[in-house]
Amino acid sequence: MEEAAALNGSAGPGASPSPPAATASARPPATPEGMALAYGSLVLMALLPIFFGALRSVSCAKSKNSSEMPETITSRDAARFPIVASCTLLGLYLFFKIFSQEYINLLLSMYFFVLGILALSHTISPMMNRFFPANFPNKQYQLLFTQGSGESKEEIVNYEFDTKDLVCLALSSVVGVWYLLRKHWIANNLFGLAFSLNGVELLHLNNVSTGCILLGGLFIYDVFWVFGTNVMVTVAKSFEAPIKLVFPQDLLEKGLEADNFAMLGLGDIVIPGIFIALLLRFDISLKKNTHTYFYTSFVAYIFGLGLTIFIMHIFKHAQPALLYLVPACIGFPLLVALAKGEVTEMFSYEESSTPKEAPGASKEEPTAADKKEK
């Protein structure tokens, strides 16, 4: 998963890698109305995949379909992730400095064209199912790749889908062709939203401690690469791929052909989002019919992102959003847990294990089949 750039309020993806203050002199400054519309739209677009991705992560955790099984992030994965992300980011920066930006972006466009179609298809599939008539001829398919033979046969790919999924794939392909040919910001955002929602839904932290390690490590990563170097901002502006959400600040003046973009990296959505989704599943495991920690962390994300935009607007410089999002998303739920006396329960919750019974709840007796199997 690519770690995208921080919020940038003055330049679009195709702009020069100079700081926002320098870029602003090359084009008419954005109007207050245009900036408010752009920032408000970015916040709304960031919240949608977190909210719905978290809800879908609950059913994803219970799914037995191999094509929808979540990828669990362990503490070891979390500790290594900032290092891997830093190497990837620096590698992209060097590639853009050494090789032609045009050919690199062409290869990346083809790669994200395929990934974007698959992600968007998976995103719209549950919603599209409601529009199919009851007598729709829906057939089941299975894509199976194995390695070896006999007892040593091992499954490499086992993907189940149906005719409805193929229809969704065809619709997503139209958006993919639009993006490939025009690089339009709306097509970019459709893919970006799909990537974000899929990330929040399918990437699961195994416990809260792992989430703290991941967010803490990427907190340092984001601050270093934005404040310490120009690498993050340069890659964000050179990288023509749907790894960021963009919204034009001159939409009111130029309409859909506007080109002065504010941007928000997908990493600033997915990383806090998977932590918020974990807290939702923790809420459900408590069996108290409340989603206190989910809503607390969701409000914390809004606060952190709003603070990012405010600071960026004041200092006229790209900001590492995780600098503000990480303390908010970890600190707010932790304060609530302290107030409710549930810190131990929060940090002992394990994603891979069966959710613990709420205090006083009755435990299910093993069935006859279970006893026989034992």
UniProtKB/TrEMBL annotation:
<feature type="transmembrane region" description="Helical">
    <location>
        <begin position="202"/>
        <end position="227"/>
    </location>
</feature>
<keyword id="KW-0256">Endoplasmic reticulum</keyword>
<dbReference type="GO" id="GO:0042500">
    <property type="term" value="F:aspartic endopeptidase activity, intramembrane cleaving"/>
</dbReference>
<dbReference type="GO" id="GO:0006465">
    <property type="term" value="P:signal peptide processing"/>
</dbReference>
<keyword id="KW-0378">Hydrolase</keyword>
<feature type="compositionally biased region" description="Basic and acidic residues">
    <location>
        <begin position="362"/>
        <end position="374"/>
    </location>
</feature>
<feature type="transmembrane region" description="Helical">
    <location>
        <begin position="36"/>
        <end position="58"/>
    </location>
</feature>
<keyword id="KW-1133">Transmembrane helix</keyword>
<feature type="transmembrane region" description="Helical">
    <location>
        <begin position="78"/>
        <end position="96"/>
    </location>
</feature>
<dbReference type="GO" id="GO:0098554">
    <property type="term" value="C:cytoplasmic side of endoplasmic reticulum membrane"/>
</dbReference>
<feature type="transmembrane region" description="Helical">
    <location>
        <begin position="292"/>
        <end position="315"/>
    </location>
</feature>
<keyword id="KW-0812">Transmembrane</keyword>
<feature type="region of interest" description="Disordered">
    <location>
        <begin position="1"/>
        <end position="28"/>
    </location>
</feature>
<feature type="transmembrane region" description="Helical">
    <location>
        <begin position="103"/>
        <end position="124"/>
    </location>
</feature>
<feature type="transmembrane region" description="Helical">
    <location>
        <begin position="321"/>
        <end position="339"/>
    </location>
</feature>
<dbReference type="Pfam" id="PF04258">
    <property type="entry name" value="Peptidase_A22B"/>
</dbReference>
<protein>
    <submittedName>
        <fullName>Minor histocompatibility antigen H13 isoform X2</fullName>
    </submittedName>
</protein>
<comment type="similarity">
    <text>Belongs to the peptidase A22B family.</text>
</comment>
<feature type="transmembrane region" description="Helical">
    <location>
        <begin position="261"/>
        <end position="280"/>
    </location>
</feature>
<dbReference type="GO" id="GO:0033619">
    <property type="term" value="P:membrane protein proteolysis"/>
</dbReference>
<feature type="region of interest" description="Disordered">
    <location>
        <begin position="350"/>
        <end position="374"/>
    </location>
</feature>
<dbReference type="GO" id="GO:0098553">
    <property type="term" value="C:lumenal side of endoplasmic reticulum membrane"/>
</dbReference>
<dbReference type="InterPro" id="IPR007369">
    <property type="entry name" value="Peptidase_A22B_SPP"/>
</dbReference>
<dbReference type="InterPro" id="IPR042524">
    <property type="entry name" value="Presenilin_C"/>
</dbReference>
<dbReference type="InterPro" id="IPR006639">
    <property type="entry name" value="Preselin/SPP"/>
</dbReference>
<keyword id="KW-0472">Membrane</keyword>
